[in-house]
Amino acid sequence: MPGPQDCFLVLRGAKTLSLRVNRHCDSAETIAAWLREQDGVKRVIYPAFTDHPNHEIARRQMTRFGAIVSFELDADVEETRQFTRRLKLWTLAESLGSVRSLFCHPPTMTHASVEPEVRRQVGIGDGLIRLSVGLEDVRDLIDDLQQAIVATRNVAEGVPA
To answer: What is the third-level CATH fold of 4-156?
Structure first.
């Protein structure tokens, strides 16, 4: 049984829920499209893209395509860990979904106990990152991703910092 304060908070939050969800989706769509254009990104997984294997199902079942964007860096596990350490606005988290932008690295977190060959067979490469896009300014989120991608790529190519 929720307490009175909990009920008040739920009712208060419900008033702006649609605005927040639309902001999440707008930003996720922008970030997914931006990621597709970046050197060092192998693939972007987002159901809004017509080449996503479940695009048609998502289009029929959903009004928007959500705030979760997955992408795979063209990097090994250690390079990907370095990428995640360079992020300043995105917070590492096991559980996604918040007003704050969060990320996880499935190969070293949720799927760490799965053998690397098996992970790769099911599409979980060493460079896979899952983003939960929050309510921060989308340009700030993109700038943060960009600086981490560029720095990671430069280190991998031997370019001094």
So the answer is: Aspartate Aminotransferase, domain 1 (3.90.1150)
